[in-house]
Design goal:
321 residues; alpha/beta; five-stranded mixed beta sheet; four-stranded parallel beta sheet; 9 strands; 28% helix; globular
Length: 321
């Protein structure tokens, strides 16, 4: 199989007609899918940019040689992808058409440098990391932030710097300034994605409100993007915690009617592998090759994420403090 060919296994549709309308407003952290009745009227996926910086990428023999011999012979890698919202990964034309986004382009470009094809399977965010350990996938993508807790069981190869941020519905709350301290959220209801760093951060620091003599914040966790959006638009949650790039992109869409409340905590984001994977050095070298030849910068420019560029890929860097 050529490096350019990406084969996608059949997916459970999860109300595909509704999901096709979701991504411009999706709010949770890299989950996939949707449930009926969760998309507000007028929501529509933004079209994908038409330029293709990945097209010119070619195999680099010295980098491909870093792959295990059995992988080179097989010529493919199994990748579990969480398809959530732009600019990371989403369905601009519905679930029956290929996904697009920054994560999709970077993964395909890395595969081309390595001279392998990708056998992609869509999966929910919270299932991918455990599936790496079981051997179901060779690599996972889904805007996975590098954290101390995850490094205990997962290896990472970084390709961008993103992180945690907050957003609100315009006019939906008195919270209008940048969130720099979780005590600003005391007394509010926060929606976020299941199995994410956002959920972990909010639950780990719940005591800050009591320590400040304030009412606690409440955390509502959603496994579906559409459910989080509906909760925000209907006033059942006051604020969303999700990815910096995703929330910033969303707020730029007039139909979203959301306001980005700034960066809270930066995180390196990377390809995820089972602990001890022999693939990490090859992926690191491939990302560095893309940085060196300019493809990486062109991909980030295409998706409006140039501010999140890294200078070099790293294997298992410590979590940002």
């Amino acid at each position: 199989m050529s490096a350019r060919h990406v084969r996608t296994r059949p997916r459970r549709l999860r109300a595909a007609v509704v999901t096709a309308l979701l991504p411009v407003l999706a709010l949770t952290a890299c989950g996939s899918g949707d449930t009926p009745g969760t998309t507000p009227a007028g929501a529509q996926a933004p079209p994908a940019p038409t330029d293709d910086p990945v097209a010119a990428v070619r195999k680099v023999d010295s980098v491909a040689a870093l792959l295990p011999a059995e992988v080179r012979r097989a010529g493919t890698l199994r990748i579990g992808s969480s398809i959530g919202f732009p600019p990371g990964a989403y369905y601009p034309n519905g679930q029956d058409k290929p996904p697009a986004g920054q994560d999709i382009d970077i993964a395909e470009a890395v595969a081309k440098v390595l001279g392998v094809g990708l056998e992609r399977e869509d999966a929910s965010f919270e299932t991918i990391l455990p599936a790496l350990g079981s051997g179901k996938y060779d690599v996972g993508t889904g805007n996975f932030g590098v954290t101390t807790a995850r490094l205990k069981t997962v290896d990472f190869v970084t390709y961008i710097n993103d992180g945690q941020g907050f957003a609100v519905k315009k006019g939906g709350t008195d919270l209008t300034t940048k969130v720099t301290d979780l005590t600003q959220l005391c007394g509010l209801t926060i929606g976020t994605g299941a199995g994410t760093t956002f959920e972990a951060t909010l639950n780990a620091k719940k005591e800050v409100c009591a320590e400040a003599g304030k009412e606690p914040y409440d955390v509502k966790v959603y496994s579906e993007n559409g459910a989080t959006l509906t909760a925000l638009q209907q006033g059942r949650i006051d604020v969303v915690m999700s990815t910096i790039n995703g929330l910033r992109h969303q707020a730029a869409q007039p139909a979203a009617q959301t306001a980005f409340l700034g960066e809270y905590h930066r995180l390196d984001v990377g390809f995820a592998f089972k602990k001890g994977s022999p693939l990490t050095e090859a992926f690191r070298a491939a990302v560095d090759e893309l940085i060196k030849d300019g493809t990486y910068a062109r991909i980030l420019a295409k998706w409006g994420t140039s501010a999140s560029a890294i200078d070099a890929s790293r294997i298992n860097p410590p979590e940002h403090t």
